[in-house]
Amino acid sequence: MKKAFFLVLFIAILAGINLTSYSQVLEGPPRDGVYDKTTITQVQPIPYPYLREADVIWTRRIWRVLDMREKMNQPFYFPEKPQNGWRSLVTILMDGLKEGTITAYSSESDQFLVPLTYKELMEKLNRSDSVKLPRPDNPDITFDTVIKVDFDPSNVKKLKIKEDVYFDRQRSVVEVRILGMCPVVDDIDKNTGEKRFEKNLFWVYFPECRNLFAKNELFNLKNGSAGRMTYDDVFMKRMFTSYVYKEENVYDRAINEYATGVDALLESEKAKNSLFDFEQNLWEY
Q1: Are 142 and 133 in contact (CB under 8 A)?
Q2: What is the pLDDT of residues 47-88, one digit of tens each?
Q3: Do residues 63 and 55 make contact, with C-beta atoms less than 8 angstroms apart?
Q4: pTM here?
Q5: Per-residue b/e over 108-117, b at no fewer than 16 CB within 10 Å?
Q6: Within 10 A of 3 (CB to CB), how many other CB atoms are there?
């Protein structure tokens, strides 16, 4: 009887040890911070106000370039590698495309006409370079080989933005609505190392990306993680700097097609100021 009692007690102790070990495994790593960040995962983007076609009495389409090397735009670029819950804008886009939550469209047109699958997109972004390498047994003899280079989001330093500016007479406001975004990379000559031209990678439809942006936190330069600022907040509040490279026109041409150097900068400022002047001229003081 005593043997049976001790046997049952021994089995219970072993079971308790296993349960304790299992519970410890489920607890996970220590919390990296002083509180659990749960609010950001529950954020929903603020819906657009209802807009009737009859209420839009003036509209203008604008294309901008957001340069992430500028100081105000650096939170879009950093961190280059995901850390502490933060990811760069292009990394978020690539992760969203991989998960299937957003759709990529061909860079040949900014009208979102040709959708691309993630496999098709990566075949386009990843490249193969042909290089000459010395033979291990005889370094004096070289052989041709192909090296596959995977796409690196940190190579994207510019972002093209397509947006509509309109006047809503129902609410008597001039508003801007972003329609699409396109990451841009520099095409570098592998022989000279010099920039040849800028290459558009793909377009994404901004309203489709808002849900993804609202659940990803942007590093707040003033309040750090306590700022609770998402990528959707930054775009909706226009908390970035950019310049106009194209304005809707009858010739459908960009500014650099008819102006260069200082003249192109002046044309860009002229387009930006015309939008500001239109809004100011709506009111009388």
Answers
A1: yes
A2: 999 999 999 999 999 999 999 999 999 999 999 998 877 899
A3: no
A4: 0.83
A5: eebebeeebe
A6: 7
